Amino acid sequence: MTKLISTSLLFFALLISLLSPLQAEKPNVIVFLTDDQGWGDLSLHGNKDLKTPRIDSLARDGLVMERFYVQPVCAPTRAEFLTGRYHSRSGVFGVSQGQERLNLDETTIADAFSEAGYRTGAFGKWHNGMQYPYHPLGRGFDEFYGFCSGHWGNYVDPWLDHNGNMVKGEGFIVDDTVSKAIEFMKTSGDQPFFTYIPIPTPHSPMIVPDKYWDRFKSRALTQEATKEPQHGPNHALAALAMCENIDDNVGRVLDYLDESNQAENTIVLYFCDNGPNGWRWNGGMAGKKASHEEGGVRSPLLVRWPARIPAGTLARTLSSGLDLMPTLTSLAGIDLKTTNPLDGKDLSKVFVKGDSAATQGLEERVIFNQWRKKVSIRNDRFRLMGEGKLYEIDRDLGQLRDLSDIYPQHKAALQKEMDAILASFPPLPKKDERPFLIGDPGMEYTQLPIRDATATGEIQRSSRHPNSSFFLNWKNKDDEIHWNAELAEAGTFEVIVFYASGPDVAGTELAMTFGDAEVTGKITEPNESPIVSDTYLRYKAGEGPEKDFKPVLLGNITLPKKEGTLRLRALSKPGEEVAEVRQVLLRRIK
Fold it and tell me: Does domain 436-588 have CATH number 2.60.120.260?
């Protein structure tokens, strides 16, 4: 009898393993995050002025989270996705000049997947810190290709960051970064992969290849924006053209999964980082990028996992970018251990079963949105703005009727929730006082972009947006460029300056100093670069120009472990100007 029972148990165990082989395998995970693409920029949601069939297929073949929210701008949303915590807790309070850096005591989603045996890679726009260990390679990723800044001035053959070193990109930036992501997945072998693809478009500059622009340049838009666009029609047309390019690149990844027989057990997730970067059709919602209104913070969330998520699953459960870290790790069977408590919730049951799994108080949750001092909060029925106006949001997407006087009890309840969340945050700093870390032995290269620098005298930025700018008008030899820096560990470094110039720059001598340490070197040939960002620019939206900056090696410098001011000075100036400077690159050699 005992032998019969043992045989039966063995038979059932074997049967279960044969019927459910995928349950024992770790799923691959691919996360697409687009930049400045609004909820309305998909044909799935009713936009008749573009076609996004490959992105739409994720909804058809998987899950749609109908009420999913992010933050009003880029870096905060990315920080919340990476950590499952409100960005105001994690050191992120701006989008440039160090304010976008994620505190080093935060556990990231890449840390969790890496610890669980996954190969991890990020390809595109990072925007949560540049100098190691803020760099992606210091936050759990094995591979990075893209840029760490919040804005990039050129999308065709640009300079990009490959594991810290600056290299020339190949072709249109989205095509290039997605190609690198596919190559990463191909070379992962039997190791499961976590592939993060933060696509940098349709964020400006409004650069898009002819193949896509030709479809839109003569098109008349058929659907109206909530407000009169402040840009001309070419801005919206260029954005939609960029979205069709995104769709093709999503299709390339889906095709790779089919060709490699990995589609069944790969989780593919798609969302956006904020509302649209201009007034264009967005389903009648109030607000756009940088707004804490519905249209500034509502994003699509599409999830496909054929092994576990039934096709056509729909959920109206309120959800947030905060939820993605605990949910994805749960779906992958990872025991998530974080240094700090999470704000996000594990929605894995909702992902797999839809609204029928909305338990454990999810019906009563609130979604909190913040950009600097502007805030709003919503529950299942209402959105309360920080200014005190209350809207029954699903019935009033345009936020046209303030119901504060009609539902004072609901306003009071949401105000109490909002006040409690705000009180739990550290004070909002006016300026980021953290020095820029350089020379960490964990990474060969340290980038010091002009974005993070200040200048004296008449030196000017090429753009009012620091993220992708360079210094020009360096006509006075006594003017200087400064970085507030801290050396992680003493060592010797090569100093490389990326510059552009007029014809008479040869013989210009530059000096880099840090305390008593100094290196000097000469620019021996001009780099009369034209404006390269205008070639495929379809609408100029306020971004600065971009040139093809050339690296010049100044020499080697031995730096002590200390905090201080890193200075770039001119010792001689044979021409009218010293040079235009884009960034300095330090390479540790010992």
Answer: yes
